[in-house]
Amino acid sequence: MCKPIIIAIDGPAGAGKSTIARSLAGKLGFTYIDTGAMYRAVALWALRAGVDLSNMLGLERLAQEARIEFSGDRVLLNGGDVTAAIREPQVSEAASKVSAVPGVRRAMRDEQRRIGLKNSVVMEGRDIGTVVFPDAQIKIYLDADPGIRAGRRAKETGASVGQVAREIAERDHRDRSRAEAPLTQAPDAEYLDSSGLSPEAVEEAILKIVRQRTSN
Ligand code: DC
Questions:
Q1: Measured by CB atoms within 10 angstroms of the end CB, which terminus of the chain is less buried, N or C?
Q2: What gap in Å lies between CA 40 and CA 54, rounded to an integer?
Q3: What are the residues whose beta carbons fall under 8 Å from the beta carbon of 119, sequence distance 6 or more?
């Protein structure tokens, strides 16, 4: 059996990772894994269960026990559909805090590696090319101008651009400055700026990189 291929796509919120990664996985017949959804699911469980976000041990336990599954476009937590609930603003905020806890990251990383050992995947997040799969065959760092990223997220959520800009600036700062697996570009990742590009153009650029790297 061939070794599974890992395509790692990292970058800040609103850079277009999810749209591109989902479509790319569909085209290549790979499994799409949204690792942000996994941190969001743990955060949602913590909020629902009343586990304080400063309780590192409690959060680690939840992360270890959480049964997170992807079923088509749906995200399931312990068997329940949480696809819409994990996109609520308070969950975004909580996910950014929960994802800074080392024990939570360990549990998510182990689960992500388990998935990638069995399947060819397009996996998107913040630390896929740096920590989860440092040996991934293809690594992309997808970025965009902060104003454009805020505009995209505002369109998705219906909130004001100013409000979203403040929220993602705060989350990006937390994601980049945390001690454990901060958002950073892997030295061997291809940098792509999606600011002036359509999703189709970004996808084509990535497919070109995939073709180059897999033919070598
Ligand atoms: O991509 P997203 O906005 O759904 O991610 C939610 C939060 O989880 C975000 O604050 C960053 C964090 N995250 C992370 O730390 N590592 C990942 N691999 C994916 C997401």
A1: N
A2: 16
A3: 4, 30, 31
Domains, the chain:
1-30+119-211 (3.40.50.300), 35-118 (3.40.50.300)
Per DSSP bridges, beta strands 74-77 and 80-81 are: antiparallel
Q: Which two tokens stand for residue 89?
A: 């603003």
Of 63, 131, 133, 48, the closest CA to residue 103 belongs to 63
Asked whether 168 and 15 are in contact (CB, 8 A), the reply is no
Q: ∠ CA 127-207-96 to the nearest 5 degrees?
A: 25
Question: pLDDT by residue (tens digit) across 25-42?
Answer: 999 999 999 999 999 999
Q: 78 and 119 in contact (C-beta within 8 Å)?
A: no
Q: How would you label 18-30 residue by residue, b for 16+ Cβ within 10 Å and e otherwise?
A: bbbbebbbeebeb
The three-point CA angle 74-89-172 to 5° equals 100
Q: Please, are residues 150 and 14 in contact by the beta-carbon 8 Å criterion?
A: yes
Strand-pair partners of 10: 125, 141
Q: How close is the Cα of 3 to the center of ligand 1, in Å? A: 27
In this prediction, residue 207 has a pLDDT band, given cuts at 50, 70 and 90, of: very high
Instruction: Tell which atom from ligand 1 comes closest to the C-alpha of 132.
Output: 18
pTM of the model: 0.95
Mean pLDDT of 183-205: 95
